[in-house]
Amino acid sequence: MNAYENVKAICDSARRASLSLSKKSGGERSLALLKIAEAILNSSDEIIKANAKDLENAVANGMKESMQDRLMLNQARIKDIARAIIKIADLPDPIGTGEIFTRPNGLEIHKTSVPLGVVAMIYEARPNVTPDASSLCIKSGNAVILRGGKEAINSNKAIVSVIRSTLSECGFDENCVALIEDTTRESSNALMQMRGGVDVLIPRGGKGLIKSVVENARVPVIETGAGNCHLYVDRCADIDMALSVAINAKCSRPSVCNAIETVLVHKSVAEEFLQRFYNATRDVSLEFRGCPVCCDILPGISEATEEDYATEYDDYIISCKAVDSVYEAVEHIRKYSTGHSESIITEDSRCADYFTGSIDSCSLYVNASTRFTDGGEFGLGAEIGISTQKLHVRGPMGLSALTTTKYIIKGDGHTR
Amino acid sequence: MNAYENVKAICDSARRASLSLSKKSGGERSLALLKIAEAILNSSDEIIKANAKDLENAVANGMKESMQDRLMLNQARIKDIARAIIKIADLPDPIGTGEIFTRPNGLEIHKTSVPLGVVAMIYEARPNVTPDASSLCIKSGNAVILRGGKEAINSNKAIVSVIRSTLSECGFDENCVALIEDTTRESSNALMQMRGGVDVLIPRGGKGLIKSVVENARVPVIETGAGNCHLYVDRCADIDMALSVAINAKCSRPSVCNAIETVLVHKSVAEEFLQRFYNATRDVSLEFRGCPVCCDILPGISEATEEDYATEYDDYIISCKAVDSVYEAVEHIRKYSTGHSESIITEDSRCADYFTGSIDSCSLYVNASTRFTDGGEFGLGAEIGISTQKLHVRGPMGLSALTTTKYIIKGDGHTR
Description:
homodimer; Aldehyde Dehydrogenase, Chain A, domain 1; Aldehyde Dehydrogenase, Chain A, domain 2; 4-stranded parallel beta sheet
């Protein structure tokens, strides 16, 4: 069987599994998840052993330490995984909710949520995505096809094996969760072309992966990830607040999509803010790249290029620019933003309203860190990714993002 | 300027226009629509004159009469167009609605609806789409780029000219509504590739157009149109009801997407139903193509092929098949349906529930005609098309389909 045939067979079984899954009640789905959480805890030794193989290969292949850390699973992390699954099990059922309305002619229309059907994930490195995505999909009545990266292949196989046997024990079709073990480019290409077989494809990973999926996939895709986020410190900002927010938004986890890459600061507070921000970030050696005014304020920093302003560093590097007004800040953000998250620190409500109303990003913050753009923080309970597109779902994707609409219309011989 | 540069320039002005449009209140947008309706009525002579040129060209090019009728505008139809615009003006504002919730940490999250931005339409023949789409887009705060078919170019130019000058008089940027006058393939290709310039592209027209857009567009698309709809007459059906629904669902407007193409009938009622249905449709010479059992019941009809069951005839032709049970009916529909609309006639509620629960189409009817799948009939007030996809919007697309989400988050120095 070639790569395409293998993927086609997996998609066909997933479709059949999704039909049987649609017959399970919310209670049955939740119970299956609780059993999966338990089984994962009970299998931690096997999972850690498989993960050790992946880490061995990673070291042999020269993977850098921060990436190895993202790959690593230990008892504590497996406990977290199990806890996350239990949390998802306890969320309200996203399926079978909706509204009823009756038309003037007496037609009764039920608009209800149903599973998308078959969800596919193409992702890199982090083995956490495997149990996370599986739980969110099962909870929402969807079958899921997982195509993880080769770095985590043994970890993924071990986790999926536990999930599939638990599903079987619960009377579910084990093909509700399937792993494509072929980690060549052919298998991801085949998945991307499987129109009719895959109802939505969600990529999670670096820019290269996202770009490749968005450009090549013929199945519906939800674009995730790109976060060229900004912070604007207004002349009416509480500078202490601006500092703690800036440090959190840049330095708490620089490699995530909701971390800021550029700080814009009103020229009237630029000197005080930038000097304090610079000094406060020497412990992590945050590298500044600035406009000419910033270079005057912080001698020794490099000059920022146009390319820098457009770059998502994902690292301890930040661009900075002094601006004349909130209008100039908004112009800059409109030019460079990827539509993810932007924040303004100000006590001036008109400035705040102008900022939040004029920028077309998914999340606009007033006096808070962009790091809150997250399903858990938004109260969605869980998250399968953060969408950076406008259609279907925007921002953190919770369970309802994995559903679509069905209309059931009851009449009494109605004709039109 | 070549086709691409021309389209790019139009997209750029539309983007600028959409920014200024986002500053207009709902009241201002509604008022502009009322003025547009008035202006279109006042310009009916000019519009009809332009339309006459299109009709002249259509006749010269051998366009068939049913198509000419779709192209034709007269006083009555222009009055209908104006009435439809006034109706849209009076609908609730779809922008700036949403919910507020406060998180345990005190973050106040406002989830609100905002315009998509720039909507593009590629459509064929019917000049009604021009004022319909323009009104729906203006109402929802979106700029719209219209790429109509060459058959209606003069009608479209005349209508758009009235809309643009009225927008100007109302203090709106006239580029909120733009017509691509170049009706070559190059211009639609350019529009389809304009990533970043177009937020959503909606095709309206025949299968060839839809397929071409869905396969080639690199901008977000909402797939419309494909309606291989089914009617299943169950053994517990009220046969009189089944007949009137079947006649309505097939013959009232055979060329629309919500008309049925196949009728499935339980073998125990097949003879009575089919003979009565056949006799009742001699006035329109409805052509039947049937399974072997149906061919026995209606001697002289052709045998239906697998291809027939998959065909959207859009004409006075219907496939028919006798089945053993609702299960067989559902199997058939699952195989051939395009996910649009299906109907069951039955008094058996378990059959009805099985039917509506097991078929993955956007609209499932019990004892009513599939012809109700329509924005107006569903109470959406207006409709920019009927989506046959699962993401973003499914079924009739009202105003909210032209919006996306924005989160505005207010904190007090919150960090994570």
